[in-house]
Amino acid sequence: PVMLTVCVSVRDDGCGFDPQRLPAGSGSGLTGMAERVRALDGEIRVMSVPGRGTEVRACVPLHARGG
Question: Higher model confidence: residue 52 or residue 3?
Answer without folding.
Answer: 52
